[in-house]
Amino acid sequence: MKPGVLRGYSKGLKKVHEAGATTEYSYRIVFQEFLRSLFSKEYNVRIIHEPSRETFGAPDFKISTETGIIGYIETKVPNVDLHRLPKRDKSQIKRYSERLDNFILTNYRDFILYQRGEKVEEVSLLDEDFNLIESNVDKFNRLIQRFLSFTVPKIKDPEELAYILAKRAMILKDVVLENMNEDEQLQYLYQAFKEHLMSGMKKSEFADAYAQTVVYGLFMARFMIEGQLTRENVAFRGVPKSLRVVHEIFKYIASDLPDYLEWILEELIAILNNVDVEELKRRFHFGNGEFDPFLHFYETFLAEYSPNLRKSKGVYYTPIPVVEFIVNSVDEILKEKFGKRLQDDGVTILDPATGTGTFLAGVLDRIHRNIKGTLFQLYLKERLLNNIYGFEILISPYLVAHLKLSMVLNQWGIKLKDDERFKIYLTNALDLMRERGQAGLFERALDKESEEADRVKKETKIFVVIGNPPYESKKIEESWGSELLKEYLHGLSVEQEKNKGVIQDYYIGFIRFAQWKIDQNGKGIVGFITNNSYLDGIIHRRMRQSLMESFDEIYILNLHGNANRGEQDDNVFKIKQGVAIALFVKLREGKHKAEECKIYYYSIVHDAGKTTREEKYEFLRNKSWKTVEWKELEPKEPYYFFVPKDLSLEGEYSKFPKLDEIFEVYSSGVETGKDSALVAFSKEDLEPVIRDILNPKVSTAQLREKYDIESTSGWRFEERRAKIVGTPMKPSNFKKLAYRPFDWRWVYYEPKILRRAHFKVMKHFLADMNIGIVTERIVPKMRLLWDAVFVVDTISELHLTGSKSYIFPLYLYSDDGKTRRPNLKPEFLEELRKRYGEITPEDFLYYAYAVLHDPKYRKRYAEFLKFDFPRIPLYEGETFKRYRDIGEELVKLHLMKVDFPVEPKLVGDDLTVEKVKYDGKDCVAINKTTKLCGIPPEVWEYTIGGYRVIEKYLKGRKGRKLSLDELEHIYKVVEILRRTIGLVKELEAIEPKF
């Protein structure tokens, strides 16, 4: 490099600086001339400069040759430290440096070169006064040479291509999101998507959909177009016209795009022009057994592009062994029960959650194996293209599905014409199109797609519904699908109706939709893999009954894998929620009694130990509907469980009175809406928070930032705060709260701000002395042993005994708090007096509390304790007295009404709780240097509500330093639990008599 070029650059910048320049643009003209002098003639390089950028998105300079893009340069003002950029600039540079292969950042004096996401060179060419630093000239020359000589080898590996495209898609998404408010065309597309596809679509979701559409549309074009891609041929030939929606989006690409979109589009085209197309096609061949190249490509892309997207949308792509088991089983059932095969006339097939088309590809493969020779092409053109349907709401997997199925056909020597397509529609399976007025071309394309999809939803007779519905545990919005779901709510209790959100989970919506379609046809099959919670969930009982009324035979293959329940076996997916395959078979039209349906069950997990993912795949490879050793179940009302249950003691247990039949008044516990801010370890900790909330001078935004208070479903912080802001703080509102077993905290008990205060019940603990039993109605399935009971004499929190705790006060107080009466139903009190003479309400509570702690009771009635409030057996007089006496001791212990000295056994002096770990013998470490000793294993293992009591208490104080009071409290609880264990052994020794 000629020294004169560098000195000229130095001189030019000095001149601009002396003229009083303050923006980076003032220096950019000098820099552009410097770049031209550096290498444009010698290296035949083109320098493209964005002269005036109002929008944010494109780097300042693009350096390219006739054969492609070399790299990009971004400039900042000379006085900025490139290592201490302002927040906005820092975010921008992070985006460029991590997602562009060859990128220079400069402030005209200092230069940093990034390649493949790594900083590889850095040099200061000029000092702060723009004088040339002679000693760094050679280093600068090396940086420029390295920048210019950067090349990307031909891309042959699909995984590498997915990774590279994901990086660019991230940029595209960001620039669309940052500029869409000012871009009329993007606003038009966004509004069209909202009106026609996803009514609640956020701008970020649109930017994501747009970015993935462009990337996958270009990816599809790479397979469709011979030779080099250009914006023009991509727009008009890259996407089949039959895919109307995507075709209209790509017509926009051929128009005069804004700079912030044009550069990244050209970058994407350049990348795809650098692909070894023939090798790529070879690698995307479906000849490798269970390997789905398109699925692998898409999952690799998603893992880099947005790891959280899959989880947020509940998108988990189905392993091939699962697909083959379901498809093969459906074909066998068709043959055995209906005398048909998948390819036969009248066998219409729908995948309502198509994803990348794995199930439909499996259907095509099975049919191809059923039909030998050239006959398959005839079946395809005249029957299958009209009989196979799919719905997909996410546009990128929708595109991949179309491309995948086309490639599957190509392998068999079949090519679809431009006007031919599979009937996979871009639509929400659980909603219908709404009436609209005038529409543009893109909206008309969406409308046409929606009209055809709605015709399938409402009118087309479907014989087979297969697939893997989404795992998104989010409530289905008010829609046609949510109306269908009301079938599963009929007959549920008021309390269960409150929890109907569980029924509105997406996977349940898809099961209901599939059931409705088969009912509409009068006969048929559903083959799904889904969340398995509906098999024995109490809230799902009407759902199970409804399915039994529709279908004649139901086959459940329980694949388990529920880490949330503590199951040790692997999941067939990489998720924590257990799953099951269901085959629902309808042989005759109309509904019938649930008892007429035959239920068959098989569990893939046995007592032999952990079943690995590969072992489950091997089972699915080697089995199908015909060869699984099904066990027939006999589900009975009211629960109709789809899993084996030992209910042989139901007649005995159901004779005992249930807690909600014994007590008049009860409710679930207090729910604040934001425990981390509204619940504290001490009154002193809570007071400043409440003072700020009540202070009108403290804004809601300040409170959010200071205390991390965000609104949640059913609790809008701004609205709740507005009801009390400006009012004086009331000392009497600070109340002790039974937060967890033996863990009392403080709450500001003001119903106006709490999410659920349950004042009608809690007031009976505020008026005067009271006592109450706390338990659960439905115990989480992960809990192997029932332990959901505690006793309180204060108001209690929702999760005191686990998932959802209910409190049953012993007494009810008058409004003035002066009188009280027992909260026992009169008829039950009368029954007690007939049996036991004059006993007090306390006598019964002590007795019941002891019964609920008896290991014999917990074991004998374990199955029933999982799905309703406990029932209390009424033993004969002497047995009653023995239980009552032990129960009184337990209550006094658990309310900590018994005094005894304790002596903490401490090793170390740092009482900050960091990581809690028990040594299995005597000590629990709370950090690297300190242990609490003298805690026997049986005490450490003692649980209430599914949690080890001592461990829960310590983990609840993680990051805090234990006070002396807390330390002594822990050792009191240790002694209480030790005594509790002794009393429980006494209970176990009693032989109850009725």
UniProtKB/TrEMBL annotation:
Q: Which residues form a coiled coil?
A: none
- Which reaction is this enzyme known to catalyze? a 2'-deoxyadenosine in DNA + S-adenosyl-L-methionine = an N(6)-methyl-2'-deoxyadenosine in DNA + S-adenosyl-L-homocysteine + H(+)
Report a single Gene Ontology molecular function. Answer: site-specific DNA-methyltransferase (adenine-specific) activity
Give its E.C. classification number: 2.1.1.72
Record's SUPFAM superfamilies? S-adenosyl-L-methionine-dependent methyltransferases (SSF53335)
Which key words tag this protein in UniProt? Answer: Methyltransferase, Transferase
Domain spans labelled DNA methylase adenine-specific: 292-524
Listed GO biological process terms? methylation
Cross-referenced InterPro entries, in alphabetical order?
DNA_methylase_A-5 (IPR003356), N4_N6_ade-DNA_methylase (IPR050953), SAM-dependent_MTases_sf (IPR029063), Type_ISP_LLaBIII_C (IPR041635)
In terms of PANTHER family, this protein maps to: DNA METHYLTRANSFERASE A (PTHR33841:SF1), DNA METHYLTRANSFERASE YEEA-RELATED (PTHR33841)
**Descriptive protein name:** site-specific DNA-methyltransferase (adenine-specific)
Give the species this sequence originates from.
Thermococcus gorgonarius
